[in-house]
Amino acid sequence: MKICYSLLLAVLINFNAATAEINAENLNLTPEQNQKILQLKEDLKAEIQPMWEEIESNKRRIMEIEKSYFEKFWNTLTEEQKQKFADLNRQ
User: Fold this and answer.
1) Is 22 exposed, middle or buried (CB count within 10 Å of its CB: 0-12, 13-18, 19+)?
2) Can you give the pLDDT at residue 72?
């Protein structure tokens, strides 16, 4: 999942960075070419958006699961162990 997220992020950032520099003036694009490039960017955004939403949803779910397991872990410890755990995490 982490690799998928990183790859998706890299592709989107690279495309966005490249298209930020693409315009009719600096590449001598025709109006038709410029429109086509703008449409490609919009199509990419539309195709990737559901994936971003799924990633965000999964991240929230992972955090909920981790919180649940940490609460169970924490409730398993004695007060002395909780203090030692807290001390170890301050270092």
Assistant:
1) middle
2) 97
